[in-house]
Amino acid sequence: MDLSQYTLFITANLPYILAVLTILIFIALIIFISVSIKMSRLNKRYRKMMTGMENANIESLLLGHIEEVRQAVIKVNNLDEKCRRLDVVTTTAIQNLGIVRFNAFEDTGSDLSFALALLDQNKNGVVLSSIYGRNESRVYAKPILDGQSTYHLTAEEKAALNKSLEKNHK
């Protein structure tokens, strides 16, 4: 094909070629407007994010925040360690008690004698008994392991122990 044939083809189809070029220019204009709107929104978000930050860039801001997060993680780990230690301590601390007051002798008034059971979370502890009399008072201590004593317990001591064990289950 020589140049005259191209010229003849273009001249014959000039309205169609102009219509296609007009449509392509219109599509390019729509894409340009869309990109321009998106860039404007992005620019507004950037300015809003950087408000109050003089001579600061995003990299330095992110590095500062990363360091703050690292410090927070260290603090959380320290608190977690302290909580674990406190859990160990609290299992052996007195958590449950049961007390029964009673009158040990008929000739004394009031319920001045008592049995007191003090147990930790593992049902270990002690039962303290105080027998009050007019002329003297006596205090007894009996160890408790896993909710049981190797010593004979009086009815009042058993009642105090049962009260403490009931609190241990709640």
Automatic annotation (TrEMBL):
Q: Which InterPro entries match?
A: DUF4446
Is Membrane given among the entry's keywords?
A: yes
Pfam families documented for this protein: DUF4446 (PF14584)
Transmembrane segment boundaries: 16-37
**Which keywords annotate this record?**
Membrane, Transmembrane, Transmembrane helix
Q: What is this protein called?
A: DUF4446 domain-containing protein
Q: Which organism is it from?
A: Sporomusa ovata
